[in-house]
Design goal:
- The chain is mainly α.
- The protein has one domain.
- The chain contains four helices and no strands.
- α1 crosses α4.
- The two termini are 12 Å apart.
- 11% of the residues are buried.
Length: 148
Amino acid sequence: MPTTSPRLFPLQGTLRRVVYVALYEGLAIAFVTVAFVAGDQSLGSASGVAVGSSLIAVLWNLLFNALFERWEARQAVRCRGKARRMAHAIGFEGGLALWLVPFMAWWLGVGLWQALLLDLGLLLFFLVYTFVFTWVFDQLFGLPRAAA
C-alpha cells in the first residue's frame, strides 16, 4: 500500500522539482562516472562525459517538453493515453540520442557506432535508475499532491 506520509520532510511544488532534479542528476553523474572509469576511461574523460550528458539531458528535457506541450495544446483530443505517452517517450529518448551519441563520440574519441552502444547502455541503466530513484525519493519526501 503506497504511503502518503513523508519519512523525512514533505516537499511540494517548485522546491520539490528542484531538489528532485539536483539529486537525480548528481547521483546520475556519480554512477555514470564510476561506470565509465570501470570501463577503462580516465576519471577526466568519464566525469566529462557524465557531466556533459547530464547537462544535455536537462536542456533537452526542457526544450522537448516545451515543444511537446505546445504541440499537445493544439490537438483536438486532450488526454494522455498510451499512444501519446509512447510518442512522448520515443520522441524524448530518440531526440536525446541524437544529441548524446555525437557528443559521446567526440568526447571519448570513439566512432558513432560505439557511442550508440554506450548510449543504449545508458538508456537501460536510466530505465532502472529512474524507477528506483523516484520510489526512494517519494519514500523520503512523500508523494506530490497530485499523486497523494
